[in-house]
Write a structure and sequence with these properties.
Blueprint (H helix, E strand, L loop, with lengths): L2 E6 L9 E8 L2 E9 L6 H5 L4 H8 L7 H16 L5 H31 L6 H6 L1 H22 L8 E2 L2 E2 L5 H13 L1 H13 L10 E5 L12 E4 L4 E4 L3 H4 E4 L8 E4 L6 E2 L2 H8 L5 H9 L12 H24 L17 E9 L2 E9 L5 E7 L1 H22 L4 H14 L4 H4 L2
Parallel strand pairs: 6-11
Antiparallel strand pairs: 1-2, 2-3, 4-5, 6-7, 7-8, 9-10, 12-13, 13-14
Helix pairs in contact: 2-3, 3-4, 4-6, 4-12, 7-12, 8-12, 10-12, 11-12, 13-14
Length: 429
């Protein structure tokens, strides 16, 4: 292949709008661009001047699927400023809420967005016709995530019961136990999903970037740790120090900011694969067995394996949430979920959670009346785009070595982009 231009305008089966541009000349890759073409969404501007009581409701609109994570992240930032310590019961409920969005997102991404790539289908609709039982079970997982978010957060998207210091409502003991039964009943299908996505053949590439994930000494942390870790570099930092560790920078071909580690200058990947690499030994028992059977052990460097990592997290989330529901039903957590008392004050603070697609940071500065002076939101996709672009280059170069056609290169690059599970809309802030 001497010269070729590969363009994908309005990439299909991703959230938001993005284009791919690859130029090959004289048998070498000259240009690789991931063009995020979404307009500015201005969420940081929307909250400026607003009371802290409004921030979480506005922030949840950053993303429909990850809304629970944005709510919890903004609340953690506010509580950091006010010096609020919530109860263990509130922490458990927040974990349930975040995990509910994992079930929503991972089921949607795997079966609706990614699966057609490996089943020679252009969309999910032929799958629904050819294997309706599989499709129905996949929709069932998504519906279970919706139910979990509704029961804990008050509705399936844009939760309303989670507030500064606690929750305004809790379901009954019987409802917790009913949820636990449903979650446990879904575990076998989630295990099958790991096997299914592990069976799909993918190109053998190794990301050149690092991985970033929330870490904790004794748990698979998603919402209750302050520590973020660059896995390869072994660099950990408190969420309040994100600006000293993550460098966001502008490129001409994308409306989204790119990101890299300040310590190493390396691009990085955040998301399910990063979390599994960082905390594999802290997965639930069933999830760990499923991951081991699929050969998913750290260090796993192939970004295509993010699909398998998401399937493993489905198993982990179901098992973990069932346990949380039973413990909540039996009143095993200290304290009430009712909001604790606090006094608004001026200050700066950063909230940090693991959204389904990866780490998300909310930086807030409030005045002494509790109104927002400054806000910054760093989303998973905004952090991932630079690394995605680097992996697209690696993939294109590897495929040139085997004399792949432009159409084949294009198809595999599209699969790679979808494996990252991007939300291009959320990346522009």
């Amino acid at each position: 292949m001497s010269t070729a231009s590969i363009k994908v305008d309005h990439l299909a089966r991703v959230e938001g709008h993005g284009n791919v541009h690859v130029v090959i000349e004289d048998g070498a890759v000259q240009t690789v661009e991931m063009n995020v073409i979404e307009p500015a969404r201005l969420f940081e501007s929307m909250v400026r001047g607003r009371s802290y009581t409004e921030v979480s409701y506005i922030a949840s609109r950053v993303c429909g699927i990850c809304s629970a994570s944005h709510v919890v992240t903004s609340l953690l930032a506010i509580e950091r400023i006010f010096g609020v310590e919530v109860t263990d019961r509130t922490k458990a409920l927040r974990e349930l809420l975040v995990y509910g969005s994992y079930l929503q997102n991972h089921a949607t991404h795997l079966f609706v967005l990614a699966a057609p790539d490996f089943l020679n289908q252009s969309s999910v609709f032929p799958l629904a016709q050819s294997d309706p039982a599989l499709f129905d079970k996949a929709l069932g997982l998504k519906a279970l995530g919706n139910e979990l978010c509704t029961k804990v957060g008050g509705r399936s998207i844009h939760p309303i019961t989670a507030v500064v210091g606690g929750f305004t409502h809790e379901i009954t003991r019987e409802e917790y136990l009913e949820l636990a039964d449903k979650l446990e009943a879904s575990i076998p299908f989630a295990v099958q999903t790991v096997d299914l996505f592990n069976s799909f053949r993918t190109p053998d590439i190794q990301t050149a970037g690092d991985f970033l994930a929330m870490t904790a000494d004794d748990r698979y942390a998603v919402a209750d740790s302050r520590i973020a870790t660059f896995v390869h570099a072994g660099v950990s930092f408190d969420a309040d120090d994100v600006d000293e560790n993550v460098d966001e920078y502008k490129v001409d071909h994308s409306a989204a900011l790119f990101a890299r580690s300040r310590a190493t200058g390396s691009n990085y990947f955040t998301g399910a694969l990063a979390r599994v690499n960082a905390s594999w030994d802290k997965l639930s028992k069933t999830a760990k067995v499923a991951a081991a059977k699929a050969g998913l052990r750290p260090p796993e460097l192939n970004p295509f394996r993010n699909n398998v990592a998401q399937a493993v997290e489905l198993v982990d989330a179901l098992e973990r949430c069932a346990e949380l529901c039973r413990r909540l039903a039996n009143d095993e957590f200290e304290g009430s979920s009712e909001p604790v008392t606090f006094t608004p004050c001026a200050g700066k603070g950063t909230g940090f959670t693991e959204a389904p697609r990866g780490t998300v940071f909310h930086e807030l500065e409030l005045d002494d009346g509790g109104r927002v002076v400054h806000a910054s939101i760093i989303t998973p996709t905004a952090q991932n785009v630079a690394n995605l672009e680097g992996d697209m280059l690696l993939l294109a170069e590897n495929m040139l070595e085997i004399d792949a056609s432009p159409d084949k290169i294009r198809a595999e690059i599209e699969k790679l982009v979808r494996a990252y599970d991007p939300c291009f809309s959320c990346s522009v802030h």
